[in-house]
Design goal:
Layout: H1 3-15, E1 18-21, H2 28-41, E2 46-50, H3 53-65, E3 73-77, H4 78-88, H5 90-93, H6 106-118, H7 120-129, E4 132-135, H8 143-155, E5 159-163, H9 179-183, H10 204-212, E6 222-224, E7 233-237, H11 241-248, E8 258-262, H12 265-274, E9 280-281, H13 288-295, H14 304-314, E10 317-318, H15 325-332, H16 346-357, H17 361-372, E11 378-379, H18 382-398, H19 402-416, E12 423-427, H20 428-431, E13 436-441, H21 450-457, E14 460-468, E15 472-474
Parallel strand pairs: 1-5, 2-3, 2-4, 4-5, 7-14, 8-12, 8-13, 9-12, 13-14
Antiparallel strand pairs: 6-15, 10-11
Length: 479
């Protein structure tokens, strides 16, 4: 830890309770981890909370880099911490929960956890367990989340609130806490000099530009990419999918990371499919796509199992266009399909027909392995394919529902982080808190929200390529 960082971290600890706004790439996570590390050196423990699994993973990595012993900190998402309190003290929370969280009930968990945190006994537990409370990405807190944090802050008064209003892109249900109305009155503002750390060894000019344009990214203003000449910033007039393919395939150094961003899940999946599987879809942490698939999974013995698997495979792999309406109709009717002529898909037809004749989850698991290994087929939804298949395999072992097992698989992801990849297709919402060497924005017209646009641009260390019919966009919050 260099002297400047150490000094800033010491000042942050001394200022607690306080709040600090820091733009993307200026070292907020690094500063938070440094402060927790210094607290740990003094044998003081920190409770560190944020919103996303990606944020938890980033903070843990920084703490490991500083060599902070795990006993000196606890890092979790806010809702996960709330769930753990509700599960442990269900009587005080006045809510009964199972061992598997249902994140659709996050609001109820937070209400119950707030009651738990306010109780004298648990407040004393928090007070004795932790010396500092750090809460990151506070700009995304609803009033319900804010009330929970305020209850924790009573027990842990040395609280530090961090965030950036221009990165408020989550749309949690309910009214939002505001920085001026809820943060500043309870946690006095702390400030420090800002430096574009993310770009220091990559593209400082791009980093400086991203800091400079923050005041221009406001609701109702026009933003024109053609008016800037910044190394690493490129605008490409799009003429359709071929233009996008040309851009994303131009990054030849596979030691560097590239993320392709769009706004809607279906658009992201379409891009990855058209790119032939060279880019893999990042799924949301709850696994909504997989959950939807598994909710319609037929029971063992049901002849529709082969029809279901064929449709699922087509939604995850490139090269299965030959498994067309005629094949799917025959599977739906429980009839054989190996008589069809589908060049290159002979083995796939045999696998599906075998599953038709023996519709068991064991056979389905074998079919998945064979399809994935078939020459000429490429998986573009690796995360969905892997986790869906694992949930089904777990059901074979424990007999529990595939949806519950998917929840277990995805909860493990919350703890250990995502599988890394160098070519990712995603929504901006899912990459918040992450960074890549190169960012490609697939369609500028869908990035009208100032916060969404800023988060997309600021993920890049080296370059940003923006595609669109026009380099000029009218900004509108919520678009």
């Amino acid at each position: 830890m260099d002297k400047a960082l150490h000094a800033n971290a010491e000042k942050l600890l001394d200022a607690a309770p306080c709040s600090l706004e820091m733009p993307a790439g200026t070292g907020k996570t690094h500063l938070l981890a440094a402060a927790a590390a210094i607290a740990g050196e003094k044998n003081q423990r920190s409770l560190i909370l944020t919103h996303t699994n990606a944020g938890v993973d980033a903070i843990r990595k920084r703490l490991r880099r500083f060599g902070v012993p795990p006993i000196q900190f606890r890092v979790d998402t806010i809702t996960s911490w709330a769930f753990s309190l509700v599960r442990s003290y269900s009587v005080i929370a006045d809510i009964s929960v199972s061992g598997i969280p249902d994140w659709k009930k996050s609001h109820d968990y937070l209400i119950g956890a707030t009651a738990v945190a306010r109780s004298d006994a648990i407040a004393e537990v928090h007070s004795l367990s932790f010396d500092y409370l750090f809460v990151d990405e506070y700009q995304d807190c609803t009033l319900v989340l804010h009330e929970f944090i305020m209850a924790l802050a009573v027990a842990i008064p040395k609280s530090v609130i961090l965030g950036d209003r221009l990165q408020a892109i989550f749309t949690f249900a309910g009214p939002m806490a505001t920085w001026d109305g809820h943060v500043a009155p309870n946690f006095p503002e702390h400030s420090l000099d800002l430096e574009p750390h993310r770009w220091a060894d990559h593209n400082v000019s791009l980093g400086r530009w991203l800091l400079d344009i923050r005041s221009d990214l406001i609701d109702g203003s026009a933003f024109d990419f053609s008016s800037y000449a910044v190394p690493g910033l490129n605008y490409v007039a799009t003429s359709g999918p071929k233009t996008l393919a040309s851009v994303v395939h131009s990054f030849r150094d596979f030691g560097e990371t590239v993320v392709l961003l769009d706004k809607w899940p279906n658009d992201v999946a379409t891009h990855a499919s058209r790119l032939g599987g060279s880019y893999s879809v990042m799924e949301d942490i709850s696994g909504n796509f997989m959950r939807t698939q598994l909710e319609s999974l037929p029971h063992e013995g049901d002849q529709q199992l082969a029809r279901w698997f064929a449709a699922f495979a087509k939604s995850c792999l490139v090269g299965l266009s030959g498994i067309d309406t005629a094949v799917l109709r025959k599977l739906e009717q429980g009839q054989g399909i190996i008589h069809y002529t589908r060049p290159g898909l002979e083995s796939a037809l045999r696998v599906l027909d075998r599953l038709r004749q023996n519709p068991t989850y064991t056979e389905l698991a074998l079919a998945a392995k064979e399809i994935a290994a078939t020459k000429g087929l490429r998986i573009y939804r690796w995360e969905a394919w892997k986790d869906t298949c694992e949930a089904i395999s777990m059901t074979l072992e424990n007999g529990e529902s595939v949806v519950d097992n998917l929840t277990r698989v995805r909860d493990r992801l919350r703890q250990v982080g995502r599988r890394s990849g160098t070519r990712i297709a995603s929504r901006t919402l899912l990459v918040k808190g992450l960074e890549y060497d190169h960012v490609v924005i697939a369609d500028l017209s869908k990035m009208r929200d100032p916060c969404n646009l800023y988060v997309a641009l600021s993920r890049a260390r080296k370059s940003v390529t923006v595609l669109g019919a026009s380099p000029r966009i009218m900004l509108k919050t919520g678009s």
